[in-house]
Design brief:
The chain is an alpha/beta fold and about 450 residues long. Helix content is about 50%, strand content about 15%. The protein binds 6-O-phosphono-alpha-D-glucopyranose. The site of 6-O-phosphono-alpha-D-glucopyranose has 14 residues, from loops. Catalyzes the reversible isomerization of glucose-6-phosphate to fructose-6-phosphate.
Length: about 450
């Protein structure tokens, strides 16, 4: 298979900017990139993702594959417990590479991968437990901090059901922990119970952790090629380290989005034309949202699945407030071949399409949308993947991570922290009377009384 690099096309965005604006950003963008390389960026304790792909050894990847084989042998269902960065990357890759109906068509060749620990839905959890009862299931418990409420709750339930259903000894073999080296409940339990465990490096933040065991183990369990995924990322790492500004797609992306933002485009809408990329949208939203949305600044990352959402959000995108720009993930080649059917009666008048590849129709929908949105005042950036496979997804992941680090530096924020996420947690713990939160509990109750 010929391997290419994914491409970035910014022409339909640059035409909304002053002439030479992108070129004029070279110095600033290169400096923002260099700050990552030199470790002088804000948040420089969290730069472990930068050279992660090239540093993963065959031995390390083999160990992950061996653990995945054990889980695949011993389980027909694997529940991945995690939230945010401990969840979205794995789901994004598994859904992008998998059959859209995997859970219905699966004849046992791969375990079904389910996700939990990403909400506090009582019904969700009750229905999940009811489904798992009587099944040969295993659990991958993922939490960098080891203290996240949603994940800890799911793990309590899953662990006890697993021990009950499969016995303590088997449970020890089919529960794997991915967490901090020393801190947190997930680590303590794993060490005490003797679970196989992996460490999330201190210097890799959750939303940049998909190429650590956080993403790699669930992806390998689902039966996908993690060597190829990592190779794609490593090739993009190499490209980005060497390419001059005009050809450096991560730098170009960072520069263009900052220019658009400065010009009043406050919302970036990530769009795909492949339903399998839905969770890639979700992963990207966390990556860019948590990295840039702070100090009262930052592009709001929104996302849509086309053509589905053209029938719900299309009106807004075409004619709503002109504060958006669009970034489209475009896939050049589909994996299957299916043609538009002919119909004798032609009641829908669509026989002019009969015999055409469905992908060709989708492509024209994509081009038609781009022309319409650009005409409607929406700058358009295109990211082109030759096909949806592990190699190009690896490239895409690293491209987005690096683009994000550079972009956050250009914006002038610390792209690697997320202090704002604590605010809701603090209130929730105060409302639930967590020990140690006595003063906060009293204050919040007083406040609610006054506001009632
Ligand atoms: O992996 P964990 O420590 O459980 O964290 C899971 C997620 O929750 C947090 O609240 C953060 O905002 C995210 O950045 C993180 O990815």
């Amino acid at each position: 298979m010929k391997m290419e690099m994914i491409k970035l096309d910014i022409r339909k965005a640059a035409c909304f900017l002053a002439e030479g604006a992108v070129e004029g950003m070279e110095k600033q963008t290169k400096a923002a990139h260099k700050a990552l390389e030199d470790g002088t960026s804000k948040g420089s304790d969290f730069l472990g993702w930068l050279h992660l792909p090239s540093s993963l050894t065959p031995e390390f990847l083999q160990d992950i594959k061996t653990t995945a084989d054990t889980l695949r042998r011993e389980c027909d269902t694997i529940v991945v417990a995690g939230i945010g960065g401990s969840y979205l990357g794995a789901r994004a890759v598994i859904e992008a590479l998998g059959n859209s109906f995997a859970w219905l068509t699966n004849k046992g060749e791969n375990p079904n991968i389910l996700f939990a620990g990403n909400n506090i839905g009582e019904d969700y959890l009750a229905e999940l437990l009811a489904y798992l009862k009587g099944r040969r299931f295993g659990v991958i418990n993922i939490s960098k901090s080891g203290t996240t409420t949603e994940t800890a709750l799911a793990f309590r339930l899953l662990r006890s059901l697993c021990e009950e259903e499969r016995g303590k000894e088997t449970a020890r073999r089919v529960i794997v922990a991915i967490t901090d080296a020393k801190k947190g409940a997930a680590r303590t339990t794993a060490d005490k119970e003797g679970y196989k465990s992996y460490v999330i490096p201190d210097n890799v933040g959750g939303r940049f952790s998909v190429l650590t065991p956080v993403g790699l183990l669930p992806i390998a369990c689902a039966g996908f090629d993690i060597d190829l995924l990592v190779k794609g990322a490593a090739d993009m790492e190499k490209h980005a380290a060497e390419a001059p500004y005009a050809e450096n797609i991560a730098e170009q992306y960072a520069a263009v989005r900052n220019l658009l933002y400065a010009g009043g485009k406050k919302i970036e809408v990530l769009a795909n034309f492949q339903p399998k990329l839905h969770f890639m949208n979700e992963w990207w939203k966390q990556l860019y949202g948590e990295s840039e949305g702070k100090e009262l600044k930052g592009i709001f990352p929104a996302a849509v699945d086309f053509t589905t959402d053209l029938h719900s959000m299309g009106q807004w995108l075409q004619e709503g407030e002109r504060t958006i720009f669009e970034t489209v993930i475009s896939v050049e080649q589909s994996e299957h071949e299916l043609r538009f059917p002919h119909d004798e009666e032609n009641l829908d008048g669509l026989n002019f399409l009969a015999g055409k590849r469905i992908d060709e129709v989708n492509r024209m929908a994509e081009l038609g949308t781009q022309i319409a949105h650009v005409d409607g005042g929406v700058p358009n950036i295109r990211i082109v993947l030759p096909r949806l496979d592990a190699y190009y997804l690896g490239q895409l992941i690293y491209f987005f991570e690096l683009g994000c680090g550079i972009s956050g530096n250009v914006l002038g924020v610390n792209p690697f922290n997320q202090p704002g996420v604590e605010a809701y947690k603090k209130n929730m713990f105060a409302l639930l009377s967590k020990p140690g939160y006595e003063a906060e509990s009293e204050a919040i109750r007083e406040r609610l009384k006054k506001e009632a």
